[in-house]
Design goal:
Elements: H1 3-66, H2 75-87, H3 95-112, E1 118-121, H4 128-137, E2 143-146, H5 149-157, E3 163-167, E4 190-195, E5 210-214, E6 224-232, H6 238-247, E7 252-260, E8 263-271, H7 279-288, E9 292-302, H8 307-310, H9 324-329
Parallel strand pairs: 1-2, 1-3
Antiparallel strand pairs: 3-5, 4-5, 6-8, 6-9, 7-8
Length: about 325
């Protein structure tokens, strides 16, 4: 074999492999650019849909104003929206993050319909409710911290805030905040929500929940709790109230009580949406007789999402795309 042939052979070998290596490397940025362009296109479509949604919200707001001035903030409707979206969620996107995103969106649309401010009972030594309120009502909604429940109640009653956020009542408190909202006046604030509705996130609440008070009529969502306050004789026991309600088919999920100079009060939480006109409540009054002076409706709330609803989807197997647990079973 000639020297020329040897050189030619080496040259041919080089020209076969080097371009192939260069072509493989150039495919990577090309594919990445394509994927990024697709993400940009999706982002544009999402923003277009948000613009369309805001236009429809504006029309809804006008309809509310024409129909007896319905409040822009509708907690029951918001709960239904979030539950539906969490139920249809698929893939790896965390449900808790989905809820957080939609809470920001819902809060923003409420603010577009009118003034919307939040009063929060968050003294310096117990700031946790501030975090829960911020997560639920949005990072840009005006919020004011107050040192005491009475100040929050005053702010809502006087129209300085649309919503007040207060600590979840405890079973036995000497002077609970809910006792100061007992009235037959429809304009008196009442419970409209329980927080957090979704995941707790980074809230500094030591695991405690909150109740939100405001105005407006409660609407059923399919999973609700209803609150009543009884003005009753001090001698009536919780056990008797529980047993009477249970016998009437009303499941009491929580009860708090306090005694004072005029008698006693009991905050009663019942599973489900129960209007004051429910015949079972009439029977409850009849069975307690003279020991029950008055029964007042105290609002209610849509039951927050359960931990199972907020749990992330199982991680997908890298080779099959199926959930890891299913892949392990074969």
């Amino acid at each position: 074999m000639s020297t020329f042939s040897l050189i030619l052979a080496v040259h041919n070998s080089t020209t076969i492999h080097v371009p192939a290596a260069i072509e493989t490397m150039s495919d990577i940025p090309s594919d990445l650019d394509h994927l990024r362009r697709r993400i940009d296109e999706i982002d544009d479509r999402l923003q277009d849909l948000l613009i369309e949604r805001i236009e429809i919200v504006t029309r809804v707001a006008a309809h509310k104003r024409r129909n007896d001035g319905l409040a822009p903030h509708q907690p029951a409707r918001e709960a239904e929206i979030v539950r539906r979206l969490v139920a249809r969620n698929e893939g790896a996107f965390p449900p808790a993050t989905l809820v957080r995103m939609w809470r920001e969106l819902l809060a923003a649309t409420v603010r577009l319909q009118g003034a919307f401010a939040i009063a929060v009972c968050a003294p310096p030594e117990a700031p946790g409710l501030w975090d829960i309120a911020r997560d639920h009502y949005g990072s840009h909604t005006p919020m004011q911290a107050y040192r005491s429940p009475g100040q929050v109640i005053h702010a809502v009653t006087e129209g300085q805030a649309a919503i007040g956020v207060l600590a979840m009542p405890e079973e036995s408190e000497p002077d609970p905040w809910w006792r100061h909202l007992l009235s037959t006046d429809d304009s008196t604030p009442h419970v409209v929500a329980r927080l957090p509705f979704g995941a707790r996130g980074n809230a500094r609440s030591n695991g405690g929940d909150a109740l939100a008070i405001g105005s407006g009529e409660q609407h059923p969502t399919g999973r609700d709790r209803t609150l009543f306050v009884a003005e009753n004789a001090p001698g009536i026991s919780r056990g008797r109230m529980f047993a009477t309600l249970s016998g009437l088919g009303l499941a009491c999920t929580f009860m708090a009580s306090c005694e004072h100079a005029e008698g006693a009060n009991s905050l009663i939480e019942i599973d489900g949406f129960v209007p004051l006109s429910d015949a079972r409540l009439g029977e409850f009054r009849a069975q307690l007789g003279a020991d029950l002076f008055r029964l007042l409706r105290f609002g209610g709330y849509a039951v927050p999402l359960a931990a199972a609803e907020l749990a992330p989807a199982p991680a997908a197997d890298a080779t099959t795309g199926a959930p890891a647990a299913a892949a392990a079973r074969g």
